[in-house]
Amino acid sequence: MPEAPLRTTKYGLAPDGDGWFVINAREVRWREREHVGRWCDFEGKKRFPQVGVNISVLQPGESLGRYHREKAQEDFLVLAGSCRLIVEDEERELRAWDFVHCPPETDHMIVGAGDGPSVVLAVGARGRGRSGIVYPVSETAKRFGVSVREETTGPAEAYADLPPSSRVVYGGWLP
Q1: To pair with 91 at 20 to 30 A between CA atoms, which of 8, 53, 85, 114?
Q2: CB-hemisphere CA count at 13 Å for 159?
């Protein structure tokens, strides 16, 4: 397997093609979205076909997204700071080095907590179809601002109240 070249964009580096590569999170392109924080996904123009990987930096109250479940496994590792896990309509406190495993069909979301930023590594299986995602209504998630008002299977509906994400240059957010 050949090495994939890295392409320089106005927002940072991105892999440009198939193959293996090494890229530093401080040099890759990042995204940000109001209420959802900042994240990098290490991907180029094409998504990784089997596994999604990203690092998110959350300020207190920001989340990885909307409370949801899907047909694929997702796992999370808190690298720095503290967070709140909402899982199956329950709330748990998370701190650095806590690992969360969500088998398929587990309702979940992570929200930044504490006095400062938190850093979360997220890994999720792919290949089971986006149509399997469900955004359920949750009273617990609603307290943290991450529940939808009405259950939906559409990401566009789940995030309709938020502005779209935008590309940004890395801004020194990682410890």
Answers
A1: 53
A2: 15
Token pair for 92: 């748990």
pLDDT in tens, the chain (175 residues): 999 999 999 999 999 999 999 999 999 999 999 999 999 999 998 889 899 999 999 999 999 999 999 999 999 999 999 999 999 999 999 999 999 999 999 999 999 999 999 999 999 998 665 568 999 999 999 999 999 999 999 999 999 999 999 999 999 999 9
Tokens of 160: 């309709």
Cα–Cα nearest to 13, from 48, 44, 38: 44
Please identify which residue in the block is written with the tokens 């924080």.
37
Asked if residue 173 lies in contact with residue 58, where contact means CB atoms within 8 angstroms, the answer is no
